[in-house]
């Protein structure tokens, strides 16, 4: 169904979940930006594409400005210095609030799924044909 390629129904526009995904990944300890993107990809795998690494860095910059994360340059190893990101106390508080919000989302989504599944199959077919 080509019409649904860029539709929110594909799950590809869940960028609101990037912030809690970053915060959750950082609870495991400081991590480099590229590895952070890989970690988010592991968690968000069902949604297909890997997250945009430059987008992750943009989120991290905004989150750092808001005091949710900190960063430090790690040098001394081989290759270029790498930036390590870590969650702050405010970031942990933000993640706790996100957790409560996601619990509400989960209940809402569960209710929506029950409603959608309860529809007769012909309703689905007619809805797909509508403009």
Polypeptide structure, described:
By secondary structure, the protein is mainly alpha-helical. The protein is 55% helix and 11% strand. It is built from five helices and three strands; from the N terminus they run H-E-H-H-E-E-H-H. The chain has a three-stranded antiparallel beta sheet with strand order 1-3-2. Strand 2 and strand 3 form a beta hairpin. The chain is elongated.
Itemize the secondary structure elements and their pairings.
Layout: H1 18-26, E1 31-32, H2 33-43, H3 53-65, E2 69-74, E3 82-87, H4 89-118, H5 121-129
Antiparallel strand pairs: 1-3, 2-3
Helix pairs in contact: 1-2, 2-3
Can I get a quick summary?
By secondary structure, this protein is mostly helical.
What is the 3D shape? elongated
Q: What portion of the residues fall into strands of 2 or more residues?
A: 5-15%
Largest sheet: 3 strands, antiparallel
Proportion in helices: 40-55%
SSE string, helices as H and strands as E: HEHHEEHH
Mean pLDDT: 83
Report the structural category.
mainly alpha
N-to-C span: 13 Å
Taking all Cα atoms into account, the compactness measure Rg is 19 Å
Count of individual helical segments? 5
Features:
131 residues; 3-stranded antiparallel β-sheet; 3 strands
């Amino acid at each position: 169904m080509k019409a649904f390629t860029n539709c929110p129904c594909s799950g590809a526009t869940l960028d609101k979940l990037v912030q809690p995904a970053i915060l959750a990944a950082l609870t495991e300890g400081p991590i480099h930006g590229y590895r952070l993107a890989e970690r988010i990809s592991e968690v968000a795998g069902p949604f297909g594409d890997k997250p945009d690494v430059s987008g992750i860095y943009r989120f991290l910059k905004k989150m750092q400005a808001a005091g949710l994360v900190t960063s430090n340059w790690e040098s001394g190893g081989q290759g270029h210095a790498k930036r390590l990101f870590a969650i702050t106390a405010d970031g942990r508080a933000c993640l706790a609030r996100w957790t409560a919000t996601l619990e509400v989302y989960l209940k809402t989504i569960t209710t929506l799924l029950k409603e959608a599944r309860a529809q007769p199959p012909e309703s689905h077919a007619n809805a797909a044909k509508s403009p």
